[in-house]
Amino acid sequence: MTDRTCTHRCVRPAAALLLAGALACSPDRDMPESIDLQVSQVYVTEPVLGERAAMYFSVTNNGSADDALVGVSTEAARVTEIHRTAREGDVMRMERVEALTVPAGTRIDLAPGGYHLMLLKLTGHLFPGDGFDVTLRFRHAGTMLVRARVIAYEDVEQVLGSPSAQDPHGPR
To answer: Where do the H-state alpha helices sit in the chain?
Structure first.
């Protein structure tokens, strides 16, 4: 009886290990077939008030499945958020969003007047020409380290190719 009990207990963990190994090698049904994201033109505007800055960039999804930007972090700010600019009548305002979907085969431009990242509670001064690392977290692609370059606010339109007058973070 003792041998049978021992054999039963010993076989169960072995079977569990085999099952876990088989599951680990099987394809994950939630994982897209192809993930290929490229991030470019990462810029942060020089803070106007010194406590917050807007970050813009382009992300291209060359993969076969949608992905989403779900988080951001940097040592340059204590708080980072994904925002979009929304118009309510004649008033432009920011709305925090939990994620930004990047559809397969498309490019999304984070730019003034649209989606952008907010760096809040800056940890130091940001001057034109400065650079710092930013970690972008995507739902499927995982984390991506990019280098952000600080630009003067008046250079936003030239660098990003979009009208800075629509940016609610700019000078008033």
So the answer is: 2-25, 156-160
Strand partners, 69: 100, 138
Query: pTM of whole model > 0.85?
Result: no
Q: List the chain domain ranges.
A: 37-162
Judge contact between 91 and 67, C-beta under 8 A.
no
Return the CATH class of domain 37-162: mainly beta
Tell me: the pLDDT tens digits for 72-106? 999 999 999 999 998 888 888 889 999 999 999 99
Tokens 């099952």 identify what position? 19
* Cα distance between residue 14 and residue 71, in whole Å: 39
Our measurement of the distance from residue 36's CA atom to the centroid of its chain's CA atoms, rounded to an integer in Å, reads 14
SS3 59: strand
